[in-house]
Amino acid sequence: MMERLFRLSAHGTSVRQECLAGLTSFMSMCYLIFVVPGMLADAGMPRESVVASTIWVTILVTLVMGLWARFPVGVAPGLGISAFFAYYVCGPAGYTWQTGLGAVFISGIVFLLLTVTRIRQMIIDAVPMDLKYAIVVGVGAFIAFIGMKNCGLVVADASTFVTLGHMNKASTLLAVAGIFLIGALMARNVPGALLIGIVGITLAGVLGGVTRLPEGALVTFRIPLPTETFGQMDIAGALHHGLLSIIFTLTMVDMFDNMGVLMGLARKAGFMREDGHIDNLDRALITDSIGTMTSAVLGATTATSYLECATGVAQGGRTGLTAVVIAGLFGLTLFLAPLVAAVPAYATAPVLIIVGALMMQDVVHIRFRDFSVALPAFLTIILMPLTFNIATGFGFGFISFVVLRLLCGRAREVSPIMYIVAACFAANFILRSL
Q1: What is the DSSP secondary-structure string of 213-277?
Q2: Mean pLDDT by 10 residues, the chain (434 residues)
Q3: Using CA of residue 195, residue 199, residue 202, residue 208, what is the dihedral sign?
Q4: Which of 4, 197, 328, 428 is the most exposed place for a label (fewest CB within 10 A)?
Q5: Rounded to whole angstroms, what are the CA distances from 283 to 63, 117, 122, 269, 363?
Q6: DSSP3 helix / strand / coil % (the chain, rounded to 5)
Q7: Residues 388, 87: contact at Cβ < 8 Å?
Q8: What angle do CA 302, 306, 339 make, to 5 degrees?
Q9: 8 Å CB contact between 270 and 11
Q10: CA–CA separation, 380 vs 392, rounded Å?
């Protein structure tokens, strides 16, 4: 049955190899069940319910990715988009989390339509690679900044806006120790380094009296369900408030993030053809868009393919069986939901910082020697953390790229779609200032 379903022999793999690859990918990405619910709880969502919704989204969508799209990739609510949701949509923008979930659902529909009509490919092709890399780097800087803020490593300052936090606080010192611990483990290529760091720092906090474990059992045999967030998305509210810029940003991040991860993993796995074609890529992208709608219904943010699955691909994962194993292992974490909810912010903050460092690696691909490229890339990267808004970095990057090309007499190098996207961002900035 396994052979018929996944064509293991044709891909040069075996059940044992796929199971080992699935375990490796799970160990690399399971930190998300600690980090994502923490951010969504900051948005005012009930923590126990978002723990359950995060895990259930990961299980269901990863199963579809494995059984239908046949990709060795895990899918779950993304870190960058969860940060945007929690710290902008439900923060400075002033919307309720129910309205935000409505925007997430709509963005999933838009992404699905863009995928099946091939418009998605046209938009992706129109954006220069330098800006694509800058978007990834900027989101990484944004995530790292949130991690530093959550653990008190940086704090607000009336004179300089931001400054070094109180380094005599036990929680901040534990977070710093977590950064070094995870960094050392990753440098030594230790599997599950992020999970080890989270568990280690949490235990250190408990033993040191910084954190108290909740009363009651930390393991449950009652399957947790997202009862408080299920079906709470407010689609009408999202449309009534005209969250076009937020929906646009959610869609763009989902598009570039998923496309980049899936193409990168396909290339690493060796099933990208010489002409660049990837079998079942459209199925994988459709799975992500359906996953985003499912995520909104259950009570979580945009679902995205996780780059951490590169560890499983490196271990030999080549078929959808790897994804099925990942989903099965996440199913086991449902019984640990009370323990997940007990993990403090200072234990997950180091992971955000480390992930930011990993995403920063793409900066080497940006052609900074060409200043018409360097300035838009720089504005994209720097304005995401400084404005605490991914959309602002997007907008300034796209607008500055188009404007510089026009002023340099290189208008023909800009595609019509880029002009449309830049104009949309410019209109959005104007409307926000009125």
Answers
A1: PPSS-SS-SSPP--TTTTT---HHHHHHTT-HHHHHHHHHHHHHHHHHHHHHHHHHHT-B-TTS-
A2: 80 86 84 89 92 95 93 89 87 88 92 84 79 84 87 90 91 95 91 84 91 69 88 89 77 72 68 65 87 94 84 80 94 82 83 86 91 94 86 88 94 89 82 63
A3: negative
A4: 4
A5: 13, 13, 17, 17, 30
A6: 70, 5, 25
A7: yes
A8: 80
A9: no
A10: 8
What ranges in 315-415 are assigned the alpha helix state H? 320-332, 337-341, 345-359, 371-387, 390-407
The answer to whether the predicted template modeling score (pTM) of the entire model surpasses 0.85 is no
Structure tokens at 356: 């930011």
Distance between CA atoms of 219 and 272, rounded to whole angstroms?
Answer: 42
**Distance between CA atoms of residues 223 and 404, nearest Å:** 55
**123: its two tokens:** 């938009």
Q: Which two tokens stand for residue 160?
A: 């300089």
Rounded CA separation 31/199 (Å): 10
Rounded Cα distance, 107 and 252, in Å:
9
Instruction: Give CA–CA dist 248/352, Å, rounded.
Output: 24
Residue bearing tokens 């720097």: 382
Rounded to whole angstroms, how far apart are CA atoms 243 and 208? 45
Predicted confidence at residue 276, as pLDDT, reads 55
Q: Are 318 and 72 in contact (CB under 8 A)?
A: yes
The answer to whether 151 and 171 are in contact (CB under 8 A) is yes
**CA atoms of 278 and 273, how far apart (whole Å):** 6
DSSP 299: T
β-strands 154-157, 75-77: how paired?
Answer: unpaired
Q: What are the start-end ranges of the E strands in 73-190? A: 75-77, 154-157, 161-164
In 3D space, the residue among 63, 43, 15 whose CA is nearest the CA of residue 291 turns out to be 63
Helix (H) or strand (E) holding 75: strand 75-77
Write down the pLDDT at residue 66.
Answer: 93
Q: Are 73 and 309 in contact (CB under 8 A)?
A: yes
In the structure encoding, which two tokens stand for residue 176, read together?
Answer: 């710093």
DSSP state at residue 150: H
Please state the φ and ψ torsions of residue 3, each to the nearest 5 degrees.
Answer: -65, -45
Residues 316, 17: contact at Cβ < 8 Å?
yes
Tokens representing 212 are 């108290």
Domain boundaries, the chain: 2-365
Neighbours of 208 (CB within 10 A): 12
Spatial CB neighbours of 331, under 8 Å, sequence gap ≥ 6: 59
Name the amino acid, one letter, at 275: D
